[in-house]
Amino acid sequence: MYLTPQRILLAGATGLTGEHLLDRLLNEPTVARVLAPTRKPLAAHPRLENPVGPLQSLLDQLNGPVDTAFCCLGSTLKQAGTQEAFRAIDFDLVLAFARRARELGARHLLVISSLGASPDSPIFYCRVKGEMEAALEAQDWPQLTIARPSQLLGPRLELRLSERIAAPLSQLLPGKYHGIEACTLARALWRLALEEGDGVRIVESDELRKLGK
Fold first, then answer.
1. How many of the other CB atoms lie within 10 Å of CB of 67?
2. Is the pTM of this model over 0.85?
């Protein structure tokens, strides 16, 4: 458990989970600074630093030191348009962000992956997520926490008809397949950030729901 103020780096602060996590971080007395690069400006806060622009172009401009990094980046094939564009975000950009976070001194990286992530998955989405996890493990982080949520529940700005149809069904599924609210995932990520440890920890969705209660 951290006893001194933390310095946080957050990617994906405008996303469904990221916005909940940012709100929590800014209301935590143990957090001294949140560095959250975004494409559009965030509401001002005395402990928030918000570089604005495409993340890839901002990475070299980010300044430390950083204690903990959260990666809430994530797209969908529909949003990205092509498999190549999806991979550029959910693999390449995630790895570039992680490398920069390590350069700035972060010891603990927490990243949102996906239920079913595996480099051997026949499903492209899950395969890219699994390859991303493996590549992050190869970066040899002192502490790496991989969250694998099931379907994320919560209001989105963009219309995702398939998700609106699937969301009620996901809440009927058992165990790790049960849908998880984005605010619950954000609370779980913060609790996991407070746990000191070494090596890699993979947290499935059912455990995330328990941690986020």
1. 21
2. yes
